[in-house]
Structure formats: C-alpha cells, structure tokens
Amino acid sequence: MKMAKNSAKEQGTMSAASVFKAIDNVLKKPGCGCSGSLDYMEQSSWLLFLRYLDAREEERKLEARLNGKVYEPALPKKLRWSEWAYPLDAEGKLDYEKMLKGDELLNFVRQQLFPGLKRLRDENPDTNSLQYRIGSIFTEMTCKFTSGYSIREVIDLIQPLRFQTEEDRHELSVLYESRLGEMGNAGRDGGQYYTPRSLIRVMVRVIDPQLNEKVYDGACGSGGFLCEAFNYMKERNKDNQKAYDILQHKTFFGGEVKALPYVTAQMNCILHGLESPNIVYGNTLAQKIADFSERDRVHVILANPPFGAGVNKSDQENFTVRTSETALLFLEHFIAKLKQGGRAAIVIKNTFLSNTDNASVALRKMLLARCELEWVLDLPQKVFAAGVHTVVLFFRKGKETKKPINYYQLDLKGVSLGKTRPLNEDDLAEFEKLAKGGKAKTAAHWTIDPKSVNQETYDLSVVNPNIEEEKLPSAAECKAKIKSLYAEIGEIIKGM
C-alpha cells in the first residue's frame, strides 16, 4: 500500500506528455495483452474517455442547473470512474479499501463495466443522447488487458490528468494528436485513420466553412477534419455568443464504421472542445443515395475516404455506379450528400483521374456534369505513411464544370517526406494563396479547358505542361550504348 501512495504522489507531478509516455510503457510490458500501437491507442482511449466523463460531471451538473434542467448523470453509479477506478474517501484521497486491483479489477472490467456500458445503447433509444453515444462506443470494443495490475497502473497514471480548463484540454488534444500520428505510422491499418493535420488545415481554410453551415465527413476516422473545422469556425466566431450552441450541436456530422477510429474520433473531438459531435457509428455506404432528402444534405464536406475493394454486394446496390472500390462509392455518396452550391475537398488516389474502368470513367463524368471542379491538388507520394500517391479534389455542386480546371503539382524539390520530415503548412502556402484567389508565377500551376477533356474517357490526369518531360533514348541508341560499354569492359579485362 505504501508503494502505491508514493507512486501516486510522483504521478501528480508528471507532465501530461510524461503520463502518455508512461502509459505506453505499461502497455508494452509482456503479459499486458496489447500487441502494438493500435492496441495501445484503443486501450488507453477508452480509459481516458471514462476519466474525462467523470471529470466533467460537476460541470454538467452546473450547466443543467443554470439551464433549469434536471441533471442526469452520464453513467449509472457503479460504472462511474469515481466508483470503480479511483474511489475517494471522506478526505478526498484514494480509498485503498474500496480500490479494485489485480484479478478483481480485471473481472469487474470484463464482466460488469463493459457489458453495462454496452447496454446503455439499447436502454437509451435517443440517438442524440450522451448515453446512447457511450453505449455505441463500447458496443464493439473489447478489453484487451490480461492483467488487472496493468489496468491499475494505467488508471493511476490517468487520474491526475486535468480536463477542467480549455488550456488543459488543448494540451491533451495536442498530445492525443501526436498519438494518432504515431498510429498512422503503425502500418496499413493505422494509416487509414490518420490524415496529416497540416493538409487538413489547408483544406479547411480553402473551403472556408461558415457559421450555420453543416460540415460532414462520412468516413471520419479519428475525426481530424471535424476537429480542425471546429477550431477554424470557433476562432472566427469567438465574439458571437450564439455561435457556441450552433457549433456544438448543429454543425458537425460524421460517420465511422470501425470501433477504434470511432472512439478515437469521439475522444479527439472532446479534447478539441467539440463535445457533441454528431458522429454515427455504422456503415455510411449502407445509405441509399436515392433516399436523401434536402434535410439530409450538407453545405461542406471534408474527407479522406478509405480505399480498397471492401464493399459488399448489398451496399453496392445503393449507388448508381457499380463497383466494389470503397473510395469511388464514397465519392458518389459525397456528391449526392452536398446541397446545391455546397463545397467539398476530398482526398482520393491519383489513379482515379486516369483509370479506364467503367466506374472511374462514370464518376469523372458525373463529377464534371454535376459539379464545378475548381482545383486538383497533386500531392507527393509520401504525404501518407502508406506511400499512396493522392490528389485533393476541390469542387462545388450545382453547375457543370465549364470554367478552366486549376491544377497544382506540389514539388518539394528533392525533399523526402517521412516520419522525421512530414508535410507542413509552409509546403502548401503557395497553393493556398492561389486557391484563395491570389496570383503567383509558378511552374506548379496550370489550367485545362473542360472542353478539351476526352468525352469518352473523361481523363483528368495530372500532366504538367510547364515541366519538360525527360526524353527517353530510342532502342537504337540503347543498343549502341550497350555495345560501347561492352567494348570498354573488354579493354579493361585485356589490361588486367
């Protein structure tokens, strides 16, 4: 018991960055039950989430009283952090008699905590309620800990974290973002959840979402687009007293099909100050685009949809374009989801611009016919950890593309992007200036006339006319060069 008290005292003096690092060190220990960065993120996230809910209870109680509403605790008593994770005695200190540890703690988490949290979704049919969202978060999550002592170590590290002030939450959000970035570098599975924040911020500023506009990401991953759009809009409306409620409850919408990114998106939004994101846990592509009404549509879409042939037959029936390629169906979903005059910035694989399969051709035709394609931003190959070559499409729904289509090819002049040198906002400064109506003489920018686009293939390939293509030698020249090299080798051998 004495050791635990000393440990708690030491943890109280730790910085938030040190706490996060210490948590990872616990989760890396043999026998803990976690096997990599994705597990570390998942298991620390659900514990952080429950700690945050507990820290917010007094604020929620005060808000309810000020608004003349009946206070309703976020969780039933036995599931609250202050009851099972960190019970306090009459003096406000950790009650070691009531504290769970070892197998007792592990069994409680597995047999009572998780089942109880999952039931909240079924017991609260209001999909907008906090309880429903909490239940949805835990419905498909699992406790991967195999040691109650490891859970106790993480709890003791998390407990001193502060969530009360905006400064507290900002510090934690920065650290959480860094963990998301590490998850994005953890391989194929992690990379699909993380889009570089420098790219997101530029996309948000170019699209320029306004108060009273609905912002949507139907494949929100870890919530980066929603968080950055919230930060942007909050800063521009900080003197508007009515803006807070609009931004918190009526502006941001999303969808996510996988449990880990869903919980990280919720936690990420909360730490950025967006406490009521309307993120639906479920398959966005299960929605029939033909059923969209005007009330379903949004003003702004910012997204980086997943790619790969992962769509089942029944979901493909919800679209006019027939394909199993996820990103293509998301693109049609986004076009259908936009209001007339709505704006979108969508990250998609570079090959979409030139692929000759029926679905790609049909979608390019649809994009040019229903929307004004304003910009194509061609990104270097290693912007994403997976090394996929991508572009960002900026378009506005409502009119056929008749104006020149702007292209910008980001060339970092030999700089090799990677973990130690990620894409930054300065890299995109020239593009942002041009996209906002500025002028600059640069070989990276050119336009094409939509009338020049082939009306059979609708090929929109990135072909920069300002850069002279390297001339490849002819077959005869190659043959002569090889013959010359053989002769040189022969002379060298003779000399030896």
Detailed description of the structure:
By secondary structure, the protein is of the alpha/beta class. The protein is built from 18 helices and 9 strands. A 9-stranded mixed β-sheet has the order 3-2-1-4-5-7-6-8-9. Helix 13 links the parallel strand 2 and strand 3. Helix 3 packs across helix 13, helix 5 packs across helix 6 and helix 5 packs across helix 7.
Termini Cα gap: 80 Å
Strand content: 5-15%
Rg (CA only): 27 Å
**Could you name the ranges where pLDDT drops below 50 across 5 or more consecutive residues?**
1-12, 187-191
Structural class assignment: alpha/beta
Index terms:
single chain; 496 residues; alpha/beta; 9-stranded mixed β-sheet; 18 helices; 9 strands; disordered N terminus
What's the structural blueprint in terms of helices and strands?
Layout: H1 2-12, H2 16-27, H3 37-66, H4 81-84, H5 102-123, H6 130-139, H7 148-158, H8 166-184, H9 188-191, H10 197-207, E1 215-217, H11 224-236, H12 243-249, E2 252-256, H13 259-271, E3 278-281, E4 298-303, H14 313-316, H15 326-337, E5 338-349, H16 358-370, E6 371-378, E7 390-397, E8 405-409, H17 429-435, E9 445-448, H18 475-495
Parallel strand pairs: 1-2, 1-4, 2-3, 4-5, 6-8
Antiparallel strand pairs: 5-7, 6-7, 8-9
